[in-house]
Amino acid sequence: MTQTYQFFATCPKGVEDMLTFECQELRLSEIKPQVAGVAFEGEVSDAYKLCLWSRLASRVLLRLSSFTPGDYDDLYQGVKQVDWLAHFDVDKSFAIDCFAAHEEITNSHFATLRIKDAIVDQFVERLDVRPNVARDNPDIRINVYIGKTETLVYLDLSGEPLHQRGYRQKTGVAPLKENLAAAILLRCKWPQLAEQGMPLCDPMCGSGTLLIEAAYIAANIAPGILRKRYGFTAWKQHDVKIWEQLYDEARQLAKDKSTLPVIIGADNSKNVLDVARDNIMAAGLSDFIRLYQQDVSEPIADLPATKGLLVTNPPYGQRLGQVEQLKNIYYRIGQALKNNYAGWEAAVFTSSPELARFTGLRSHHKNTLYNGAIKCVLNHYHVREIDPSRIKESSESEAEQKNRHESADMFENRLKKNFKHIRKWARKNNISCYRVYDADIPQYSMAVDIYENWVHVQEYEAPKTVDAVKAFRRINEALPVIASVLEIDPNHVVLKTRKIQSGSEQYVKQDDKKRWLIAHEHGLKFKVNLYDYLDTGLFLDHRNARQLIFKYAKGRSFLNLFAYTGTATVYAAAGGARSTTTVDMSNTYLEWAQENLKLNKLVGRNHQFLQADCTQWLWDAKRAGHRYQLIFLDPPTFSNSKKMTQTFDVLRDHVELINLTMKLLEDEGMLIFSCNAKKFKLDVASLSDYFIEDITAITVSEDFRKKPKHKCWCISKQKIAPLKL
Fold first, then answer.
1. Taking Cα atoms as reference points, which of 69, 65, 79, 72 lies closest to residue 5?
2. Which domains are delineated in the chain?
C-alpha cells in the first residue's frame, strides 16, 4: 500500500495561481494555494513529478512533523521527536533553512542552532557519531517554519532551488531567475502563441534566460531534465525506480526541436552574448535560438514578418545603480517598438513605474511579480503608435522656473558655505575624505563627499510624490555646480542613486570599472572605490569611532566584527594592539582589509582574518574560549546573505547579538557598539547586567554634526572611566 504525504511547493509571490494550475495539470490532489506557495497531498511520485516538471516552483517540501511552538527548548524537543535516522545516514551532510515568526522565538539564527543541536544530538545518542553541517551543497536540506500557532518541519526534496535548471554556465550583471522568467512568459500567454507558431524576441536578452525558458515551454521540455542532483537523492526513502521511470517519460514527451517557432535574442554587449551563447549551448538549443549583437533601437535584419511577442527585462536600477542612465534605455525600447514591432504584443518587466513611463506606451494590463524581495510589474502592451507627448518633459510656468532657479542658487550658496568651513577643518586634522553636503536643501536631496581630488555624489531616492523626470533633470543640473564649487575636474564627479537597500544589495557590485583611490585619514591610508560598490570602502561617519579604537587599543587584543574593509582594524593595529581578529562574511572585503593593513605596513602573525557569519562565529568562539579586551561591533541594519543561515535584523536581534559578543569580552574590556539604523533604540533594560555609556556625541565628527548617521555606545562588564578622544 502506497503512503500518502503532505507537501508544500514554494514559489515567488505573485505566481501562486499559476503554480496551482500547474499542480492541477500534473493531477495532484488536495491542492490549496497559499501565500508564496501551494500545499498538496500525494505519493512520493507526485513530488518527483513536480520537481521534474514545475517551471514555477522554487522548492518542494515534504512535511515531517508539526507541533505547537513554545520557547527555544520546546523547539529543540519538537525537532528531536522526528526520527531523523529514518531520513538520512550519518555520513550525509545537512543544512537548515529556518524562518521564525513567533513571539517567543524571534531570532532565526539562534533557532537554527537549536534545531541543529536537536538533530545532531539524536545521532550522537543513537550512534555515538554526528553528521556534518554543510552550508554549501549539503546532501540533505531541512526547512523549519516557526509560526505563531504551529511549527512545521519539512524535508526539502528539491535540494538546490528548482530554478537552477542546470543549463546556466554563467550569469550576467543582474540575472533573472529561471522560474521567474517562466512566470513572465506564462503571463504573456506564450504557450498559446507558440502553438500558433508566432516568433518571440528579447532585444535585451542578457544571459538568455527568457529565450531558453521560452524554448523549453514551446518544446515541452521538462525544466528539471538537466539537473544531476535533487534533495531526495540522498534521502533514505528515495525510490530510484519511480524516479527513473518519470525521467524516461519526460524525455519521451519532449517535442522535436525543429518544430520550434523563431526565437531571437539581441544585446549590445559581446561579452554578455557570449554568456548567453554558453547557456543556450548547455541547454541543447544552439541550433534553435538566434543571437545578434546590436542595440535595442536597431531593427533585427531577419525578423519574421508575422506578428509575435517581444518580452524583455531591461535594467531598472536595483543592481546597476546608475539610474540616471536608464531613462534613455526605456525611451529607446519605446521607439524600437514603434518603429520595428508594429502589431506585436510586448511585455516589459521592471520594478520602476517611473522608468516604464519613458517607453511612451500605455499598458493595457499589468501583473505584479516579485524578483526576490523586489516588487516588480510586468507591463503588457499592444504595439500601435507612441504618443510623443507622454515622454516630453512638461513645460514649466514662469513661477516654476523662478522657483527652480531660486532653489539652484540656494544649493550653490549652501555648498559654498559648507565647503569653506569643512575644508578648513579637514586640512587642520589631516583628513582628505569628508562630507560637504547632506540634503541641506530639500529640492537637492543628495550627499556630497570629497575623496582626495574626486567627488562622490549619492542621490537619495526621490519619494513617489516627486516627478521623476524633474528630479532627473535637477540632479544632473547640480553636477557641474558641484564640480565648480569644489574645484574638481567634472570628470572626477561620480554619481550614484542611493535607494533603500534590501538584503545583500547594499554590498552588490554596481559596475565593473574598478577604479581605486588612496584616501588619507589621520596619517593612515585606505583603499577606496567610488564606482564598483554602493559604499566606497570607508565609512566617513565612523572616523571618530576609529580614533577611539586607536587611542584605547594599545596592548589590547582587538576583535572587529562585521568588519567590512577593516578600517577599524587598521586603527587598532596602528594604535599598538597586541593582536587583531577581523571577521566578515565577504572574502572580497577581507582581502580589501588585508590590503589596507599592508598599505600601512601593519602585517604580521598577530593579525588574523576570518571569513564567517559573525553570529555563528560568535557561538563557536564562545565554545572555544576566545576572549578579547577591545571589541568593535558595527552590524548591518539588515542582512539576508546566502552565506548566512538566516536573516539578521538589528532592530530585532541586537540584544542577543550584544549578549553573545559580551561572552567574549574580558572583565576589564570594552565593547564599542555602533548602529546606523534610523529607528534604532538600544534596549537598555534588556542589557541591565552591563555598564552602558552613550558615546554618540564624541563619535560624530564635524562634517556629520548636523545630520549624524549613527549612534554609538561603550558597553562594559565593569564600570570604567568615560571615554575621551
1. 65
2. 5-156 (3.30.2130.30), 178-220+258-390 (3.40.50.150), 401-499 (3.30.750.80), 519-716 (3.40.50.150)
